[in-house]
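User: Quick sanity check before I run a bigger batch. Here is a single chain. Can you write out its predicted 3D structure?
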Amino acid sequence: MSKQNAKKHKKSQSHAHAPKKSHAPARIRPEEITACANKIETFLRQTGKKVLPEAELARKCRSNRCPAAFQAALEQLTKQGTIHATRKGYALCLRSGCFRAETIRLSRSFGFIRDEAGTEHFVPGKFLQGSMPGDIVLARPIPSRTGGDSPEAEVVSVLEENNSVQLAGTIVPEEGGLCLLPDTMSSTPLRIDYKESVDYGIGDKVLAVLTSRGRRHMEHRVKILLNFGTADSAENCVKARIAAQGIPTVFPDDVLHEAKKTAAVGVTAYDTAERLDLREACIFTIDGAYSKDLDDAVSVSRQPDGGWELGVHIADVSHYVRPNSKLDGEAFQRGTSIYYADQVIPMLPPALSNGICSLNGGEDRLALSAVMQISPEGDLLSAKFSKSVIRSVVRGVYSECNAILDGTADAGLQEKYAPVADALRELDALTERLEHRRIQRGAPTLESTEVALLLDEQGRCTGLLPRVQGRSECIIEACMLAANEAAAKLAREAEMPLVYRVHEDPSPERIAGLKDMLRKLGQEPPLFEEASPRDIQKILDDARDKPFFPVVNNLALRAMAKAKYSHEPLGHFGLALRDYAHFTSPIRRYPDLVVHRILSDYLEGGSREWMQRRYEKFAENAAAHASDMEVRAANLERDADDIYAAEYMRAHIGETFRGVISSVTDFGVYVTLENLAEGLLHIHDLPEGQYEIEEGWYLRESYSGQEYRLGDAIEVVCAGADVSAGKIDLALPE
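Assistant: Done. Predicted structure follows.
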C-alpha cells in the first residue's frame, strides 16, 4: 500500500465524531480558541453525564461566527483529554470516568496502560485502539474479564502518538508477499513498505519502525531498519528485542572519553589522604569466576562477647561518577546493568566497571565501608560508615570458596585461600546466625526459579539447569543484606532523603486468592486476616514435602507485592525488615550510587536541612525512574531466558519430559518441566471431548472425568519450539 493510500485508509477508519482537522487561517487569535473552548466545557458540564451532539454544541457556541475557532477548540480539548467523542457526540471525560494514561507495554493479545497516579491497567487487545508504547491515550474502566491483579480498561482514543516506536519481529510469507510478524503487539502479520526497507528474507529476525498507523494494530505499516539474521538463533532474537526496546548497548563517545579520563588518574595520595586506611586488613572479594565488576568485599573478626565485627566494603563509585556529569546522566538513564545468557549490558563504561572501580585483588581501591557490630544472636547492634581505601587480599571465586568450606579443596586452592581461610570460616559461622535470626523474624524462604543457561562456543543453548546457591553465595548474600539494612537504618534515623528498597504488604485481594487456591490444592491455609511474613512462611512450610510445593511457592510469590524503589522508608515485607536499601552494588545499580552519594555528603557533615534541599526531589525522581528501568531489565532477562530455553528445546522435539502443571487457562495448561523450561499443552492437543474449565484451577473432560489440575505431575512430549517467540509447545505421549 502506498503512503498516500495508507493515509486514505487511516482517514476512513477514523472515528465518526473525531474533530475535523483545523485549517484555521493565521488571523484566528488564540483568545478566540480559548473562549470557544471555555464555552464547550461549560455547556458539556451543564449536560451532566449526557452526550451533546456536535451540531447542538456548535449551535450553543454560535460557531457560525467562527467555525474554524470552534473546530480548533474541539481538537485542542480532545487532545488534552478534557473531552472525548462518542458515536452520538461529545462528553466531558471526567463525567464519563475517562482518564489520561500512557501505553507502557504490549503482548500479542493484550497490553497495559499506566494512569497519571501510577496505577497499571490491563487492556484486552481489541480495546487498545492500535495504541503503541509511549502513546498518551484516553481510557476508561471496564468490568474485569480475566480476574487478574490489575484493574481493566479500554482505550477510547490516542491523544498523542509516539512516533519513534520500533518493534522486533520475523519475516513470514503471506498471500501477496512477505510481511512482518511482530514479537509483540499483533498476532496478524503487518504489511511492509519494501521500497524503504533494508534487504530481508523469509525467517529473518528484524527491527522495524512504523510508517503509518491504523485504528487496529493489524492495520499498522512498517519498514525494516535492521536485519539480525535467522530467527532460529536465540542470540539474534534477543539482540532484536534489545534494539526494539531502545536499550542502549553502546556508550556515547563523550561518556567513554570522560570514563577513560577519570580512570586514567588512578588512586592518588590526594584521594587517600583523608580516608580510613584499611589496606593492611584481611579484606577479600567473592564473586563468580567470570565476573569483572567486583563491587563488594568483606572482612570479619570475632569479638570477646562472642559476637562479630563485620566489614562490608563497597566500591566508592560516587567518587568517580559526579552529579551532573556525562557519566552520571548516562548511568541515570540506564538505571541498571542487564545480565542475560553470558552477556552483560553495563550501566557504567568498562574503564570504570571493570577498571578503577572494580575491587581487583592486590590493587588499591577507594571504598565506602560499613563496619557493623553484630551480637552473638545475629542482631545488628551498630554500624559505622567511613570513606576508606582498601586492598583486596584474595580474588575469591564462589566455587573455590565452597570447596574450602566443605573440605574438598585441593592443595592449590588451600594455598591460594590460606590468607583468608580463617576469616571465611568465621563468615560461615556468622552467616548461620544471621540466617537463623532471619527465620526468627519470620521472613519467608521462597525457592529460586532461576535458570542457568549452558552455551556452546557459538552461543547456542545446550543445557538448562536450575540455578543452585552454594554456601559462599549465601555468605555474601547475608553480608550484603546486613549492610543494606544498616544503610537504610542510618538514613531513616538521621531523617535524610534516600532511595529505599521497599516491599509493601500484600493486598487483601491477593491473599484471599492465595487462600482459595490453597484450599483447592487440599492445603488448609493458616488463620489470619492481614498477612504477615510469618504467615507466608507457614504456608510454605506446610507444603514443603508435598508434590505441589513448586506451585505453592509460585502462588505465594505472586500473592506478594513487587519490590520497588521509593523515597519513603516503607519497609520490606519479604525480608521482614523495617529498614532496607540497596547499598552494595553501585557499579551496576543506580539507586546504590545515589545511596552512596547521599551517605558521603552526610559523612562530610551535611546538615539535615541541606541534605533535604539537595536530595529530596532527586531521590523521588531517581526511585521512580530506577523502578521503571528495573522492570525493563527484568522483562528482557525473562524474555531472554524463554528464548534460549526454546532454542534448547528445539533440539529435543519428540522427547518426553516430566513436569508439573503450573497454570491453567481456558486454552490449555502450562507445564513447568524439571529443567524449569515452561511450555503450553494446548486444549486442542488434549484428548477429544467437552471440557469444563475453572480458570486457574482445572480442565475436566465432562464424560470421562479426566482432569488436568494445577499442581498435578504430568508427562509430556516436546512437540515444537518457536525460538523467536520464546514459546514451547507440548503434547501428551501417545
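The first strand starts at residue 83 and ends at 86.

User: Great, the batch can go ahead then.
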